[in-house]
Task: inverse folding
C-alpha cells in the first residue's frame, strides 16, 4: 500500500533578505507501508530538510506530498501537529529526551498530546519500553543511562503512538559502532514486525540495514 | 489536550527545576508579605492613635499652634505664637462651660544615682490635666493646685521611667534629676502603651510653672479645653476660636474637636497607607519582573524541550498554556506563602508594636500577585509557543 508519495518537492530557504538557497530540487519518491528505506547522502545534501518535510515539521516551497493518499503539503500548523502526533514517530541523533524527567514519563509524552488517558498511557509506554528492552529502567533519568539506552528510550517514545512511519535522522550518529549496530537491530526487528521505517544516514554500514536506499546529493535524488 | 493535562505537565515542569521555582516564588512572596506587613503596621498605628484620642473623651477641644488641615496649610516649621496669656484668657472667658489646661512639652534626660534615662518626654501640666485627659494615677497622688501655684519640684512618673530608674525599688518620695534639677516623685501614672514605637510611658509630668521656670518656656504646646456638657463642644470650639482670633490670625492656631482630631489622624494614616502600600506594590512589581525574567530565561533554556514537545504533537496553545500555568502557579504559591508569612509576622510584631491586619490588603496583594503572574507570564509564554519546532530542536 502506498504510504508516502512526494512529487516535485522543492524547498527554498530564504537565508537572508536577498539570498535564497534551494535545499531540495524536484524530489519525487514513493514509499509503501512496511518498507525500510534509507535516505543516504553526504552532509549538507538536504537529508534533514527532506525528513522535516516528510515528518510534517516543515512545509515544502512547492510540490505535493500525499500521506496515505491525503494531501498534507499545505495544512495548518494545528493539523500538522495532530498528524505528527498520530502518524509519525521521530528518532533524533541527539535523542532529545527530557533530562529531568523519568524514562517512563519521557515515553508517555506524545500520548499526553494525543489526549490518551493516564492509565492507558502508562500501559502503552511500558509496552513500548519492553519492545526496546528497557523494562527495568522505567524510573531512571536519561542521564543515568548509556547513549544506546537513551536512544532505545527515544525509539520507544517514537513507537508508543503506534505511528504509520518512524523517521530516524542519523539515529546512530552519536553512538559507537557496536551500539549503533544494536540500535539498527531494533529497527530491523520493528520493520520485520511490520513498521515502516525511513532512516537517514550518511554511513554505508548503517544504510545496509535498510531494504532500499535512496541517494540524495545537492538536494536531488540520484 | 485538556486543561487538567496541561496543568499536570506544567506542575511536572515546575518540579523538574526546583531552584527556578523557588526563586520565582521568593520574588512574589516578598512583595505580598511587605504589602500585608506595611499596611498592618499603618493600620495598627491608626488603631492605637484612634484609641488614645477616643480615650480622651468626646468633650475635649484641643488648641494647638499652627494651622492643621484646610486647603492652605503653610509649609515648614512655624514659630509657636500661642502664649500662656491666651490659655488664661480662655480659662477666664470659658469658666462657666469648660475646664482649661495648658501643657508644655520637652525632651530631656532623667537621672537617679548613676542611672540615666535619656530621651524621656517631660510634660509641664496643670492640676486638672489628670481629669481632662482621663489619666490614672496608680500610686501616690497627682500634681495639685498648690504644686502649680508655688512651682514645686514634684513629679509623677510613667511606668517605663519606674522600670528604668528604680527597677523593683519603690519610687515614691525618692528624688530624681530632671535635666539636672532634683524633683521628688509623688505619684506613678497609669500605663498608656506606645504609639508606633514611641513609648508613651517613658514620660514624666511636672507642674507647669516648674517647667516654665526651669526651661524658660513662653508658649504652651497644647491647650486642652474640656466641655462640661457634651452638647456644648461645637459651641465652645467656636468661642475658643473667636477668643484667640482677637489676638492671633487663623494660621497661628487650630482648634480641633476630638472628632476632627480623629479625622486628621485618619487623613495622615491614609497617606501613610498609600505611600507604604505603594512602596510594597513596587516590590510586588519587581517580583513580577523577576517572574518574567525567570520565565524568559527558562524559555531560552528550554528551547529544545519546546521544540521536542511540538515535534511530538504539542499545539501552540498547549505550550502557551503550559508556560502560563507555570507562571500563575508560581505566583499563586508565592502569594499564598506571602500571605501566611505576612500574617504571622504581623501577629509576631503585634507583641511589641500594634499591628492590624486588613483583609483588603490580603485580598489586594494576592489579587495583584496573580495579575503579576499572568501579565508577566504572558510574554514568555507567547514567545515559547511561537518557536518553530525545527529551529528549537536545532538550538544548542
Ligand atoms: N533553516 C535553514 N535556512 C537556510 N539554509 C538551511 C536551513 N536549513 C538547512 N539549510 C541548508 O540546506 C542544506 C541542506 O541541509 P540539511 O537538510 O540539514 O542537510 P543534511 O541533513 O543532509 O546534512 C544545507 O546547505 C544547509 O545549510
Ligand atoms: Mg542532517
Result:
Amino acid at each position: 500500500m502506498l504510504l508516502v508519495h512526494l512529487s516535485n518537492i522543492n524547498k527554498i530557504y530564504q537565508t537572508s533578505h536577498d539570498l535564497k538557497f534551494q535545499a531540495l530540487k524536484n524530489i519525487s519518491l514513493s514509499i509503501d507501508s512496511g518498507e525500510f528505506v534509507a535516505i543516504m547522502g553526504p552532509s549538507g545534501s538536504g537529508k534533514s530538510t527532506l525528513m522535516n518535510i516528510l515528518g510534517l515539521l516543515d512545509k515544502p516551497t512547492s510540490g505535493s506530498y500525499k500521506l496515505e493518499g491525503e494531501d498534507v503539503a499545505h495544512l495548518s500548523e494545528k493539523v500538522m501537529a495532530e498528524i505528527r502526533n498520530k502518524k509519525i514517530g521521530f528518532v533524533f541523533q541527539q535523542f532529545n529526551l527530557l533530562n529531568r524527567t523519568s524514562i517512563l514519563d519521557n515515553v508517555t509524552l506524545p500520548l499526553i498530546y494525543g489526549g490518551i488517558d493516564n492509565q492507558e498511557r502508562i500501559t502503552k509506554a511500558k509496552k513500548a519500553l519492553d519492545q526496546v528492552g528497557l523494562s527495568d529502567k522505567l524510573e531512571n533519568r536519561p542521564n543515568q543511562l548509556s547513549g544506546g539506552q537513551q536512544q532505545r528510550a527515544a525509539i520507544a517514545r517514537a513507537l508508543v503512538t503506534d505511528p504509520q512511519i518512524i523517521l530516524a535522522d542519523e539515529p546512530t550518529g552519536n553512538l559507537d559502532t557496536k551500539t549503533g549496530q544494536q540500535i539498527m537491530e531494533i529497527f530491523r526487528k520493528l520493520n520485520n514486525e511490520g513498521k515502516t521505517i525511513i532512516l537517514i544516514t550518511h554511513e554505508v554500514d548503517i544504510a545496509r540495514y535498510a531494504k532500499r536506499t535512496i541517494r540524495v546529493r545537492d538536494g536531488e535524488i540520484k | 489536550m485538556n486543561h487538567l493535562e496541561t496543568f499536570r505537565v506544567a506542575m511536572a515542569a515546575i518540579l523538574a527545576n526546583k531552584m527556578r521555582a523557588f526563586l520565582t516564588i521568593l520574588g512574589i512572596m516578598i512583595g505580598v508579605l511587605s504589602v500585608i506587613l506595611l499596611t498592618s503596621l499603618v493600620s495598627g498605628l491608626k488603631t492605637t492613635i484612634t484609641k488614645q484620642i477616643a480615650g480622651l473623651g468626646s468633650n475635649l477641644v484641643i488648641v494647638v499652634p499652627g494651622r492643621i488641615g484646610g486647603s492652605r496649610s503653610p509649609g515648614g516649621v512655624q514659630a509657636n505664637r500661642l502664649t500662656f496669656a491666651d490659655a488664661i484668657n480662655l480659662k477666664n472667658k470659658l469658666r462657666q462651660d469648660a475646664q482649661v489646661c495648658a501643657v508644655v512639652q520637652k525632651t530631656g534626660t532623667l537621672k537617679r544615682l548613676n542611672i540615666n534615662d535619656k530621651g524621656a518626654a517631660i510634660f509641664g501640666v496643670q492640676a486638672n490635666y489628670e481629669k481632662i485627659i482621663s489619666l490614672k494615677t496608680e500610686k501616690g497622688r497627682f500634681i495639685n493646685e498648690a504644686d502649680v501655684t508655688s512651682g514645686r519640684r514634684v513629679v509623677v512618673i510613667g511606668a517605663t521611667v519606674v522600670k528604668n530608674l528604680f527597677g523593683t525599688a519603690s519610687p515614691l518620695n525618692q528624688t530624681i534629676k530632671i535635666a539636672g534639677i532634683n524633683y521628688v516623685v509623688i505619684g506613678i501614672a497609669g500605663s498608656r502603651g506606645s504609639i508606633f514605637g514611641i513609648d508613651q510611658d517613658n514620660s514624666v509630668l511636672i507642674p507647669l510653672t516648674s517647667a516654665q521656670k526651669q526651661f524658660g518656656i513662653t508658649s504652651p504646646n497644647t491647650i486642652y479645653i474640656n466641655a462640661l456638657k457634651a452638647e456644648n463642644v461645637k459651641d465652645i470650639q467656636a468661642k475658643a476660636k473667636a477668643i484667640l482670633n482677637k489676638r492671633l490670625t487663623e494660621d497661628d492656631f487650630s482648634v480641633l474637636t476630638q472628632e476632627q482630631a480623629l479625622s486628621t489622624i485618619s487623613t495622615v494614616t491614609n497617606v501613610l497607607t498609600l505611600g507604604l502600600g505603594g512602596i510594597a506594590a513596587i516590590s510586588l512589581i519587581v517580583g513580577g519582573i523577576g517572574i518574567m525574567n525567570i520565565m524568559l530565561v527558562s524559555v531560552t533554556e528550554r528551547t529544545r524541550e519546546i521544540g521536542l514537545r511540538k515535534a511530538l504533537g504539542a499545539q501552540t496553545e498547549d505550550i502557551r498554556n503550559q508556560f502560563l500555568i507555570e507562571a500563575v502557579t508560581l505566583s499563586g504559591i508565592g502569594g499564598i506563602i506571602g500571605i501566611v508569612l505576612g500574617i504571622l509576622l504581623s501577629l509576631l510584631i503585634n507583641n511589641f508594636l500594634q499591628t492590624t491586619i486588613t483583609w483588603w490588603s490580603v485580598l489586594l496583594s494576592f489579587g495583584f500577585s496573580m495579575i503579576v503572574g499572568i501579565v508577566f507570564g504572558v510574554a514568555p509564554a507567547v514567545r515559547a509557543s511561537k518557536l518553530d519546532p525545527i529551529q528549537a530542536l536545532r538550538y544548542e
